[in-house]
Each structure stands twice: as structure tokens, then as C-alpha cells.
Amino acid sequence: MLLIGMFDSPFVRRVAVTMKLLDLPFEHGNWSVGRDFDRIREYNPLGRVPTLVTNDGLKLMESAAILDYIDELVGPERALLPRSGAERRQALNLMAMATGAAEKGVMQLYERAFRPESKRHEPWVERCRLQMSASLSAIDRYLGERGVSQWLVGKRMTQADITAACAFTFLNDALRVAADSVMYASLATLAARCESLPAFQETRTAFLAPAN
Ligand SMILES: N[C@@H](CCC(=O)N[C@@H](CS)C(=O)NCC(=O)O)C(=O)O
To answer: Across the beta sheet with 2-4, what order do the strands follow?
Structure first.
């Protein structure tokens, strides 16, 4: 399989981490959404990453749809999203907050990368910042109440943990969201636990500010 997109994207990275955890080999198209835009568009009309080309030649886009495919591929026993019920709903909710926070972080970065200084709109950036930090706080509070040594859902690591850790590491690298060490302490503990695992270490990369 070919996974397109750089690992400094939390959306690409959560797919890469998942494939490594599940022992699914893949080739890495380490292409930039700025410099390699045209090349990426040959695989995805949106020019977005991650895009996964499966062994059957299927081109899959959107990290959630790719993860859905991967879970189906490995079967219900190994799938990383809880199958049904309250745990599945909780995991999906936490993942929506984590990916939402990451998207709001990406928007702040793109405001700088793709817009000339005279066209930037600070109230919009401030709104993104508020949405991002409110989502991170909600995940952090939830884990703090649950117990910081726990996984987010159930008794084993799930896609909720992978997604939350990838989003948090990205936002920290790109925007220093936890510069104040008391902020997001529970989430930081979870991310550190995840980041110590080989699948995370093998996909850890320096954040590169997006450029045209
Ligand atoms: N909802 C998408 C978000 C993906 C996303 O925002 N990817 C960024 C890189 S972090 C991208 O491709 N940006 C280029 C663009 O949107 O023009 C997913 O989960 O796959």
C-alpha cells in the first residue's frame, strides 16, 4: 500500500501509527501539500493528505475513511475502534474533538502560510485558537476524571488514544499549546505514553511549517 502525506500531519500520522501497530506494511509517499500539490492531486482531487492507495489500487481519502478500511481489513478482533455501544460512541466523540482541535491548528498555520500578511484576519485566528484549546481541555478533563494512568476508552489502547496523542504532539510541535506545563497535564501524560511506543517513534518527525 502507498500512504501519501508527511508524518508531521496528525491525520497522516494517525494512519501510519495504526498501520504499524497492526503490522500492515506500506510505502511512504513523503510528499508536501505545498510543494507536491500537483502530484498529490493525481491521487486525490482535493489535493489533501492522507491518501492511501490500497493493494487493489483503490484510492482512499480522509483519515477516518482510511482507518475504517484498515479496521475492516484486520477484522473485528484487532480493529482499533471499539465495535459498538457506549465505548464506540465515546471513542468517536473524543476523536472528533481531537481531530477538530488539530484542524483548527492547521487553519491557524495556513493563515500564516498561504495568506499574505495584509490579508490575515486576527479575530478568525483567535476563534480557531479558542475552539482548539476548548477541545483539548475537554479531552484533558475527561481523562483526568477517568484517571491519568488509564487509556481513554475501555482497557486497551484504541484509536481514540492514537488520535488524541497524534493531535496533541502536532499542536505542541507546531503551536506550543502546552507551553505552560500545567495545561493539559493528563493529555500530555497520555501522549508521552503513546510516544514511547515504537509505532509512534518510527513516525515521529520534526514539524515543518507549511510552505507554498
Ligand atoms: N479531515 C481530513 C483532514 C486532512 C488535512 O487537513 N490534511 C492537511 C494536511 S495536515 C492537508 O492535506 N492540507 C492541504 C489542503 O487542505 O489544501 C482528514 O482527516 O484526512
So the answer is: 27-29, 2-4, 51-53, 59-61
Q: Give the global pTM.
A: 0.96
- Which residue has a Cα nearest atom 12 of ligand 1? 48
Whether 203 contacts 17, CB under 8 Å: yes
Residue nearest to atom 15 of ligand 1 (CA): 48
Atom of ligand 1 nearest to the CA of 103: 6
Nearest-CA residue for ligand 1 atom 16 is 48
Instruction: Please count the other Cβ atoms lying within 10 Å of the Cβ belonging to residue 179.
Output: 8
Look at residue 170 and tell me whether its pLDDT is greater than 80: yes
Q: Residue 95: pLDDT band by 50, 70, 90 thresholds? A: very high
Beta-bridge mates of residue 61: 51
